[in-house]
Automatic annotation (TrEMBL):
Localization, UniProt: Cytoplasm
Name used for this protein in its record: Adenine phosphoribosyltransferase
Description of how the protein assembles with itself and partners: Homodimer.
Residue span(s) of domain Phosphoribosyltransferase: 32-142
Keywords: Cytoplasm, Glycosyltransferase, Purine salvage, Transferase
Gene Ontology cellular component terms for the protein in this record: cytoplasm
Cleavable signal peptide: none
HAMAP family, per database record: Aden_phosphoribosyltr (MF_00004)
Amino acid sequence: MSANDDLKALIRTIPDFPKPGIQFRDITTLLLDPKGFAQTIERMAAATRGTVDLVAGIEARGFLFAAALALPLKAGVLLIRKDGKLPGATIAEDYALEYGQDRIAIHEDALVPGARVLLVDDLIATGGTARAAVRLIRKAGGVVEQAQFLVDLPDLGGADALRKEDIAVDALLSFPGH
């Protein structure tokens, strides 16, 4: 039994969604459990290294974790959104999808150069969006050296790809497959 089996038990697996062969890890069942969600945030906060100025959440489920985690860390929340969703001047970063491209953005004035940023999302799979978020934060002058996720799908290599970019990666849970 691992330290986070209590949280793992709160995540529902939906087979063959969104297509045959995929084991979808549905975190909404954990979010519905107040004790489980609170323990998730406490454990993520405990895993945070050093002082953090901003917790960056990737749209959309990452917003939930970033906002909740920012409170015990006494940090602000940086929203990383799909391009075109933020008002005002933005900077953006493109990244590859399985079939095409996408783009994420932050406000130009969202962080001051040298701000220490913790990147957070619910799940890391291939790491394409997370790696683009790291590039975007660094382009804006932020210092991002760590990322946290509720779930890692290590077979898809995203956490390892982030580590190659000098990011310390933590995930409370790991599931095999995709």
